[in-house]
Amino acid sequence: MYATHKYCLNIEEYLAYEEKSEIRHEYIDGEIFAMSGASANHNQIAINMVALIRPYLRGSKCRVFMSDMKVKIKQENATFFYYPDLLVTCSDKDRDNYFKTEPKLIVEILSKSTKRNDLNEKRINYQSLSSLEEYVLIDQDQIRVISYRKDSQGKWLKTILENDNSLELKSINITLLMSQIYEDVE
After folding, report:
1. Sign (positive/negative) of CA torsion 159, 161, 167, 168?
2. Which residue segment(s) compose the domain that 50 sits in?
3. Mean pLDDT across 103-115
4. 28: helix, strand or coil
């Protein structure tokens, strides 16, 4: 039997490592995990979302970021850094150059390899952020969007959208058609 050694990085080591790394890594309480590449459909959906949201936010204090911006989640006993596919922050305090801590909206584009993690671990951790109002998961293999929205009592409501539905993003007050989200996706 072989002994295994787990090397843990503190947050400062991780951030320094990530600045020099040619690939991205998510950070889960001291451990880092390499991120895999994305498909053409994944990239097209991400581009579509930014192309739709960015002009709408122009002139506001809100900013949209793509998959190279981390979200930091600090919980009682653990810290996480994830790379969501898209995030919007409107907080004046959210000014770190390498990660954000107060997103209003987070979007993940689902793949077979990330779906379980995005629907479970990440969803739970993202929803622990007091600033987060919506968490949206877009399937890249079929026209299907899962939206989690926090109501006025702080309860998360789940909606599943398909085909001719539209995605209402109340957090930033915009409605997107499925045809816009999935434009040029095979």
Report:
1. negative
2. 38-68+83-181
3. 93
4. strand
Q: Which residues are CB-contacts of 136 (< 8 A; sequence separation ≥ 6)?
A: 105, 106, 107, 108, 145, 146, 147, 148, 167, 169
- DSSP state at residue 30: T
Amino acid at position 57, single letter? L
End-to-end CA distance of the chain, in Å? 47
DSSP per residue, 125-177: HHTT-TT--EEEEEESSSSEEEEEEE-TTS-EEEEEEETT-EEEETTTTEEEE
Q: What is the pLDDT of residues 124-142, one digit of tens each?
A: 999 999 999 999 999 999 9
**Separation CA 9–CA 59 (nearest Å):** 39
Number of domains observed in the structure of the chain: 1
